[in-house]
Amino acid sequence: MLAAERRDHLLALLAREGKVVAKDVAADLGISEDSVRRDLRDLAAEGLCQRVYGGALPVSPAVVGYADRQAVAPDSKRRVAAVAAGLVRPGGALILDGGTTALAVARALAPDLACTVITHSPTVAVALLDHPAAEVFLLGGRVFKHSAVTSGAAAVEAAQNVSADLCLLGVTGVHPEAGLTTGDAEEAAMKRALSARAAETYVLASSEKIGTASRFRVLPWAKVNGVITDADPHDPVVEQVAGLGVEVLAAG
Predict the structure, then answer these.
(1) Mean pLDDT over each residue of the chain, to the nearest integer
(2) pTM
């Protein structure tokens, strides 16, 4: 089989099965695992898959820049945001992550809702300026322009001095095996710091993130209470996540 044919085969397998196991592909095609790994390395370099131990997973479309992400599945994000906003109780304290889905949550909060919102996202803070009853705390630090959030040591330290009832966390990948992932190590650390300061953590997962993975793990499944997604409840990935004991809130 030519290299181009192997490439097409791997991409088709990734689309159909949701993962590639290098040793299985090597056995099926009668080639070495090294050849499969080399092909996966080339595909990963083009942004067509996310390499993991033993093979590869679908890459998340949410790893593109912040401006481009605003055009990715906006209706899906609004559906997820509507359900997430319903979890915020009057008088409660919310830690709201950054990103385009979190921004949709800020916009979905009732304008007259009296609550406290803690965020490391300047765009989220600005979106809440027209919510007169919401008290907003903006955590400072180095601005990570890719996601329009603060991160780094100063931001993590600031997060350690707050607490909340609920954390609504954004990720770029949701996969039963890879877990909850994102594309930047410092951003992943900041997300962990935010989640650790809330009594409950729910993940904002619009459908394009389901079954995909990015390079850095944010949290293991045991550390989150639930996932809010508009993906089909019968999607195999969603069913696997529910099977892990994670509450899945449907936003369809």
Answers:
(1) 91
(2) 0.84
